Structures are given as structure tokens and as C-alpha cells.
Amino acid sequence: MTDLPAHGAHPPGFAHQFENMQQQREASSLGMWVFLVTEILFFGGMFTAYIVYRLLHYESFVTGSHLLEVKFGATNTYVLIASSLTMALAIRSAQTGKRKGQIIFWLILTMFFGALFLGLKFTFEWRHDYIEHIMPGFGFQYRPEWGSLGPEVQMFMCFYFFMTGLHALHMIVGLGILTVLVIMTARNKFSPEYYAPLEISGLYWHFVDIVWIFLFALLYLIGGRY
Amino acid sequence: MSTANAGAHDAPPESGVNYLNANYGIRSWLLTTDHKRIGLMYLVSITVMFALGGMAAVLMRLHLIEPQGALVEPETYNKLFSIHGIIMVFFFLVPSIPATLGNFLIPMMIGARDVAFPKLNLLSWYVFITGALLALFGIVSGGVDTGWTFYPPYSSLYSQTHVVPVALGVFIAGFSSILTGLNFIVTIHKMRAPGMTWFRLPLFIWALYGTSLIFVLGTPVIAITVFLLALERLLHVGIFDPAVGGDPLLFQHMFWFYSHPAVYIMILPSMGVVSELITAFSRKRIFGYTFVAFSSMGIAVISFVVWGHHMFVTGQSIYAGLVFSVLSFLVAIPSAIKVFNWTATLYKGSISYQAPMLYALGFIGLFTMGGLTGLFLAALATDVHLNGTYFIVAHFHYIMVGGALMGYLGGIHFWWPKMTGRLYPDYWARVAAVVIFIGFNLTFFPQFVLGYLGMPRRYAVYPAEFQVLNVMSSAGASVLAVGYAIPLVYLIWSLRYGKPAGPNPWGAKGLEWTTASPPPTSNFLAPVVVTEGAYNYAGTEGSHD
Amino acid sequence: MSEHSEITGHAVHVVPVRTYLLVFFALMAGTALTTAVAYIDLGRWNTVVALAIAVTKMTLVILFFMHVKYATGLTRIVILCGFFWLAIMVALTLSDELTRVWEINPSGWNALFPLVSRLF
Question: Mean pLDDT, to the nearest integer, of B93-122?
Fold first, then answer.
């Protein structure tokens, strides 16, 4: 395309619909934040439904919540918080011009924590729930101690699986994004002048962490454990 | 026909290379990141969807010629109105102006080379096509009979139709609009040319900015709602099933949280188009620019707090009903502000009646009627009588067809020379506009009367005393169909035989008119610097910022 | 202006590692606290405390890990809009769900303010 001015001075990663790197950086950041707002509303829809049913069927939700093991929820919360720290450190490494090996180290550690989260969830929580017949749609069985609240307890378990399932899906996508970032870093794409993909992926990762913070508090701790 | 070239101050000599002929071959289109080509791809796609949705409507109107139904079984009729609604709402009206004219024009109107994220733009088209194909698969497999509103527990527990693929098709198409809205918001914030301040933007941009806010804030909610519905149906669990403690009204709350703002997604861009058309064809600055700009924001924001007016008779609490009723009256105000300002713009303007202007004038009249009848429905007491009747059908068709669709057609005609480099025959365009106006009123005005007299909507049969009005409506529909067919003919004809258009066949103000028709791929050959406000027509009084 | 900000256009704030670590420990402590409090009977305050801690943790992540403390006004407005819109959805939905009168002839407070009888 010859009708653009000569642009030899533009750094790698520059996209030509923009005028300069600052505009590009501001646009990518705004774009990711707008996307996160859509995610707030997306998860928010389920949170809204959850709030309504928790207010209308509190006893059933307490019963359902007690079916979940706090130790797994809490451990997973610690794991995700650690992954947010390592993600922040990965971005900081790129920002301060560290060697790509260091950036990759933090990214891989983040992926490790993410995979650990998913591993704990699927093997110790979901598998256990399936075996115990409290996974809705997959052989769910009412327990006599629930009395007439049986259907509503199943409703709680639906919300548990849908909400944590949607969250887990976002984690899996996040792991995919991190893989791409590792590859990009290995190919020397990033520098203190250009690390926007790392930064905006970090925003996504932290958002998914925040969602889990609320899921833990709202799903595992209803009605207390006293 | 006005052919003044005023304003084309830096249109370069024609080099013959433009965005249409810069590259050839199917791959250069399917892998394009040029917002103009993507806009055209959307144009073709939604025209196909409009034809499909229109066919369903034709079958419905033919069926309703007789009180006991003239054409299909009741079960089929239920599928027809459902398919008509789903296709027209989700696959035609919601993307219509934003994805076609918005994609094409926004970068040009703000002096940018492209949108902020061109690859996301292309992705949005593919996502739209995927959603449309999935929904069409569901339709071809037998369709759905739940209405476009998919209310449970019927849609989740009892309907024997293909709810899941159609609902998931809608779910996927929703992501297409989210991507479009996101792209527009970032583009408008960050990529305006030097000197293009917020209050120098064309009002079309303000309208699309408001629309994009709704895309981004509302669509995720219907996505999750439809997703929950699909899960409920697939796993045979009850989320909205009263037997297990669920609340069907919760679905309705979540559904309408998006779907009410969605109707503003459908009308706001048309209002933006009308602002452009009224100014160009009265050769006058818009009256009350700031009011019109802020009214777009007002509509976008207030639209989110009125959704309960769709649920007045569903068992919603009376207290919530009161709140929603008051807020629904409030949302009429910004729309009224626009109508007043357009009218004041026309006053003492130098008015010409080319086809785009006819559509704009038709919009003002028909939208006003549709909007005012909305107030009847916002009042709780009258809504009890009118809800579920043809009054509602007429109300929203006046706005969606008499308003949104006419704005869309006006915009297509106005910017056709810019997009294609060709002029269409204005005589036939005006004939079509008049035929559409007449056909539209003949189709839908009788429905106001029918609804008031008590004819329910979504029924395959009706009492015999309503037949005359129904036949009138069906006759109008056939006129309307002819009216829609005419532009299809001459617009396609113009692609090959139309007179070549110059950069500014209408003599209009706006950055898009300063480039060649069709524009070069990068839109502007020289860097753009803006020094004047919008609609700076010669002879208009007042200072400009 | 340093050469770095000349290229990038404005000074980019680099958060010290110490800050990140402090936030990390605060988040871990918050998690431990919220778990521990769940085992103490505070009645309906359990939920309030759990939510308060969750909101605090979220705020820390947003301000420091997501760099919003150093971000522009536009970013903050965008974030606030997201939460505000969610609040609209929850509040107006609850305005219906919590105020439905189930009795045929409600008396006393329940006639005027159904919400009252539901909460107390």
C-alpha cells in the first residue's frame, strides 16, 4: 500500500490502522476493559439468578452449600491468587526489559497454577460429586435428609456446576492464551516498548481470578459452617 | 438531481484504484480486514436473512386471510411467527445499520483508516454467519414454535421443536454484536482524526456510540439467559421450572433486560441516519445538535431500566410494575427531543425530495406514531387490555418497519453512491419509497384497530368479525412486498449500469464525502485534520466550534 | 522526558515487586480470614462479612494487579459502568421478585410493603 507515509521508525507489533504506538496501546487497553465489562454482565446474569434463588430458597441453598468441601474451594482460591501474582510478575518482567527466559518462567508458573486449579476441581470436586450422584443431569439422586427441599437443592447444585463450569471454561481459554504468549515471548515479540498482549491477557486472567473470589464466598460458605 | 461538488476540497484525481478493485478473488474478500468490505459482506448476509424472515411473514399474512386460517396447520403457524420474529430481530434488525453502514462509515466519518480492531471485525462476521447457519439448521429441521421470546417452561420442558439449535444460533450471533459494539466504542474514543472533537462528530456517530453501549452491556445477559435455557433443556434440570422452585419470570427479567434495550439497538442507528438525511436534504445545520447528541446517550441509558413493561400482565409484582411504568414514560422523552429537533431543522430549510429524504420523512411520521402508541402500553391500565393483542404487533412494527427499516433503506440509498461508485435511478427509488409507505400503512394500521377490538396475537385463527381488517392487512403486505422488491432490482441494476458517482453526488457535508466514490482502501489519501463542526452548510447562521 | 517515554508517549508506571507481594499476602490473608469466619456463628452477618472481604480482595486485584490505580479516568468510568449496570439488573429484578404479595387479602405491613415480611 503506497498511499501511507513512510514508517520506518515504527516498532515491531505496530498495527497500521493506528497513528502511533500510544494510540495502539490505549486502544488495546480500552478494548480489553470493554470486553471485561461484557464479562461482568455475562457472569452477572448468572449471579443475578443466583441471588434471586438464594433469597427465595435460603434453606435449600444452605443444604446444597454444605455438600461442597470448603477445603477444596479455599485451596483453589489460594492457587488462583498465586497465579495472579505470577502473571503480574510476568508482565513486570517484560515491562522492565528482562530476558525472555524470565518472562516465560513466570508465564509457565501461572499456567501451572491454572492447571493445578482445574486439576483439583475436576478430580477432587466434580468427579466426587458425580460419584456421589449430586451432579444434576447425570444421575442426580435426592437424599432423604433433604426432605421436600430436594428439587431446590438440585437447583443449587445446578448453579454450582454452571457457574464454576463457566469459570473453568474461562480458565481453559486463559491457559490457551498463556500458551500463545509463551510462544510469542520465545519468538522475541515483546520488549519494554511493546508488551500489550501480555498486559491485556493479564487483565483477563485477573478478572477470572476475581470471579472465583466471589464464587468461593457465595457458593461454598452459605449459611456458615458452624 | 443535485450534483454539486461542494466540500470535495481534497478529492484527488481518480486513480481508479479503490477498495473494491484493489484485490480480486474470493480470498481477498473472505480474509479481508477492510471495514468497507466487511460492511458489504454483512449487507449481503442480512439481505438474505431479511428475505427469509419476509417469506415467513408472507405465509403468515396469506394464512390470516381467513378466520379459520387459509394456509397452514396451527402448529405450523406457531412456527412461522416464531421464525419470523427470530430472524427479523436477531439476524436482520440488530445487525442491520451497525454492521453494514456503521462498519462502512464510522472510520470514514471520524477520519480514520479503519476500525480499532480490523481482525476482530472480520471475526464478528464469521461469528454472525455461524450463528445464522446454526439457527437456519434448526429452522430447516423443523423450526421452533416458542415465539422469538423463548419463554420457559414451554420452551424448556414442553415444546417438541428444535429449540436448542435455534437458541444457540442466537447465542452465537450475540457474540458477533458484542465484538462489533466493542470495536465501535474503542474506535470512536481513540481514533478520531486531529480536530475531530466529540461535539464535531456527525450525529450518526453519536447514535452508533449509544447503540454500541447497548451491544456491550445488554447482549451478554441474553447470551447467558439463552445458554441457561439450552442447559435446562439438554440436561432436563429445572432452572425456570416452578415445580422445582424455579421462577419463569426470572427468565423473562433476564431476557428482557437485553431485549428491551435491543429494540433501541434497532432504532437508534436509524435515528442517526435520519439526522444525516434531514440535514443533507434541507441543506441546514441540525437544530439543537447537543440535545440530539445527548438524547442518543439518554436513550441508551434509560432503555436499560424499563424492561418490566413487557411483563405487566405476567404476574410481576405491582410495585415493580409501577416503577417500570414511570420509567417507560421517561424513556419517550429523548426520542421526542429528536423528533422536535428534526422538525425544527426542516423549518426554513432548502428541502429536496430525493429518495433518501422520502425515507427520512416517512421515518419521522411513522416512528412518531409507533412511539406514541408505546405510551398507551406503558400505562399499566391500558396495557392490561392491549397486551397480547395486535395493538402491540402494530406498535412495534410501526417502529421497527416504519421506523428502523425505513431509516435503513434511506441510509442505503444515501450512501449507495459512496459504497459502490454508482448512482441508482432516483425516479424508481422514489416510486419504491412511496409504495413502501402506502403498503406499510395498509398492512399495519388495521392491526391497531384489530388489537384494540381484542384480536389476540400469535393466534392461527380469529373471530369472523375481524376478517375485513385482516384482509386489508394482508393486501397491504403484498403491496409492501412489491415495494421491497423494487430497490433490490434497481440497486443491483445500478452496479453495472448506473451512472458513475462523483465523490459527493448529494453535495453533503461530512468527511466521507471528501473521498472518491468508491473510496480507496485506506479511506483518505492525505492526513485528515478537522476544522469545522458537523453539517456546516453554507448560509446557515450561528457560529461553529 | 526519558527516551523510554518518548517512544511510548507517556511515562509507564512500573509497580514495585514489593507492592505486588504485599497485595498477594493481603489476598491470602483475606482468604484465610473469610474461611475462618465461616466457622463462627454470626447469623446473617456471615454473608455480610464474606462479601465485604470479597469486595476488598477484588478492589486490591483491580487497583494493583490490573494497574487501575495508575490508569486513566476513562478506564475507571468503564469499570464503574460495568458494576453499575449489573446493579441495575439485580436491583430491578429484585424489585419484582421480593415484592410479590402471596396472600389473597394481605393485612398490616404485608399489604403495603411485602418486602418487610420477607426480610423479618
Answer: 96
- Interface contact A221-C38, CB threshold 8 A: yes
Contact between A22 and C9 under an 8 Å Cβ cutoff? The reply is yes
Nearest CA in chain A to C42: A224
The answer to whether B304 contacts C97, with C-beta atoms less than 8 Å apart, is no
Angstrom distance (rounded) from CA A68 to CA A73: 8
The pLDDT assigned to C113 comes to 62
Verify that C26 and C61 share a domain, yes or no. Answer: yes
Q: How far is C36 from chain B (nearest CA, A)?
A: 32
Q: Tell me which chain A residue has its CA closest to the CA of residue C8.
A: A22
Q: Are C65 and C119 found together in one domain?
A: no
**Structural domains in chain A plus CATH codes:** 44-220 (1.20.120.80)
- Residue of B317, B318, B331, B380 to mutate, testing the C interface (most C Cβ within 10 Å of its Cβ): B317
Confidence of residue B177 (pLDDT cuts 50, 70, 90): very high
The minimal CB distance from A30 to the residues B118, B186, B520 is found for: B186
For all residues of chain B together, what is the average pLDDT? 93
**Gap between the Cα atoms of A129 and A150, Å rounded:** 16
Q: What percent of chain B has pLDDT over 70?
A: 96
Q: For residue C49, what are the domain limits?
A: 1-71
Rounded-to-integer distance, Cα C28 and Cα C38, Å: 16
B466 is written with which cell numbers?
375481524
**C-alpha pair distances (Å), B184 with each of A112, B258, B310, B518, C80:** 36, 19, 29, 22, 20
Rounded-to-integer distance, Cα B457 and Cα A70, Å: 52
The structural domain count of chain B equals 1
Residue B338 and residue B260: Cα distance in Å, rounded? 20
Let me know whether C56 and C13 are in one domain.
Answer: yes
Crossing angle (nearest 10°) for helices A100-119 and A150-186? 160
pLDDT tens profile C4-52: 443 344 456 889 999 999 999 999 999 999 999 999 988 888 889 999 9
Residues of A in contact with C78 (CB under 8 A): 30, 33-34, 37
Residue C93 to residue B316, Cβ atoms within 8 A: no
Within-domain flag for B522: no
ipTM value greater than 0.85: yes
Grouping H, G, I as helix, E, B as strand and the rest as coil, residue B4 is coil
A residues 127..186 contacting C (CB < 8 A)? none
In the predicted structure, residue B41 carries a pLDDT above the cut 50: yes
Return the percentage of chain B with pLDDT > 90, whole number: 91
pLDDT tens digits for B181-212?
999 999 999 999 999 999 999 999 999 999 99
Q: Is residue B519 part of a domain?
A: no
Question: Are B257 and C89 in contact (CB < 8 Å)?
Answer: yes
Count CB atoms within 10 A of the CB of residue B73: 11
Contact partners, residue A198, CB within 8 Å, separation at least 6: A90, A91, A94, A103, A181, A185, A190
Instruction: State the residue for C-alpha cell 457458593.
Output: A219
Residue B138 lies in a domain: yes
Q: Residue B441 sits in a domain of what CATH number?
A: 1.20.210.10
- Mean pLDDT of all residues in chain A? 92
How many domains, chain C? 2
In the prediction, which pLDDT does B207 show?
97
Q: Does pLDDT of B8 surpass 60?
A: no
From the number of C-beta atoms within 10 Å of its C-beta (0-12, 13-18, 19+), residue B512 rates as buried
C8 and C65 housed in the same domain: yes
Note down the domain range covering B138: 32-514
Q: Please indicate, yes or no, if residue B9 is contained in any of the structural domains.
A: no
Q: Do C78 and C67 have their domain in common?
A: no
Residues C66 and C101 in one domain: no
Question: In a 3-state reduction of DSSP, which class is residue B143?
Answer: coil
Give me the sign of the Cα torsion angle B212, B218, B222, B227. positive
Please choose, from the candidates A60, A159, A176, the residue with its C-alpha nearest in 3D space to the C-alpha of residue A118.
A176
